[in-house]
Structures are given as structure tokens and as C-alpha cells.
Amino acid sequence: MSDVSLSKIENMIYMIRGQKVMLDSDLADLYEVETKYLNRQVRRNALRFPEDFMFQLTTEEFIEIKKIRGTIDQYGGQRKSPYAFTENGVAMLSSVLNSDKAILINISIIRIFTKLRSFLLLEKGLNDRMSRLEWGTNKIFKVVFERLDAMEATIDTKLPSIKKKIGLKEET
User: Fold this and answer.
1) Which residues contact 85 (CB under 8 A, 6 or more apart)?
2) How many CB atoms lie within 10 A of CB 156?
3) Do residues 64 and 22 touch, judged by C-beta distance below 8 A?
4) Can you tell me whether residue 86 is helix, strand or coil?
């Protein structure tokens, strides 16, 4: 992959409906084809793109993406909401876009999705470890405070029962 940086691709991945996706216009840009050509190829091969591979954004989702990008005017002439491709949908695109460029770009995109998935697994593992550590720490503190309470009760029984009041003396 010569002129496309991994960070550029990473910035084109969005979390929509709980899935990591890429938009049709971003993919077309990477493949150096027009968005309408990419979408035409997808329509011609509709059986290859079930709902879990590709879906069309709602108007609200599209507006939210434009806010995230800070590019409200970038899609000014677009009449329909874009299509979002999941990792599987991106992989399937290489079979409908028959060019060396499409294959190389797809390989890079799939590598990034895989890297993101491994980061999520690492994060989950760290969260699990932190939860276990927190549980263990809470258990230890509970034992410590119970023992301190027991020691305080023992000390209170051994002290003389007469306690002096602390405060100002009243004048008579």
C-alpha cells in the first residue's frame, strides 16, 4: 500500500449500531473509483451483501457522522444516506471490485479491523483483571475493617468507664 496510510483508514472506521463500519464514499475514495460505481457493483451483486455485511444509514446516523467528521458540507449534493460496510462487507467488496488496487486496499483494511479487534480483546482482558483486583481489594479491606472494629470493641471494654467531657467549663 503505497500512498494510503493506516491512520487514514483508521479514521474512516466508525462505530454505528454497535458495529465497526466504513462508508461507501470513503471506500470509493480508497479504491479510487466513484461512489456510484462502487454502489452499482454492490447492487449488481446484492446476494453477496446481506444486512450484517452492509446497511444504509438513517438520516440521523448520517447527520451524526457529518458532525463527527466536522464536514457538514462535504456531502452537500448527496441525496441518499450512504451505505455502511462492516468488516465482512469490506472483505466481500474485493470480490466485486476486480482490480489490483481494490485487493491491496482490502488487505490493509482487513488488517486494521483485525488490529482493532485485538485491541478490544486486550481491553476486555484488562477490564476483567481490574474487576478481579477490585473484588480482591474490597475483600481485604472488609477483613481489615472488621478486625479494626473488633480491636476497638476490645479496647473500649478495657478502658475505664469514666470519660471526661471535652469542652468549656461552665462558670458558676
Assistant:
1) 21, 22, 23, 24, 27, 49, 53, 54, 93
2) 9
3) no
4) strand
Domain containing 28 — which CATH number?
3.10.260
Containing H/E element for 99? none
Q: pLDDT tens across 145-166, in order?
A: 788 777 777 776 666 555 566 6
Smallest CA-to-CA distance from 95 within 48, 53, 137 is with: 48
Range(s) of the domain holding residue 91: 6-125
The per-residue pLDDT for range 70-129, each reduced to its tens digit, is 765 555 555 678 999 988 888 888 778 777 777 777 777 777 777 777 776 667 667 777
What is the number of domains present in the chain? 1
Report whether 63 contacts 9 (CB < 8 A). no
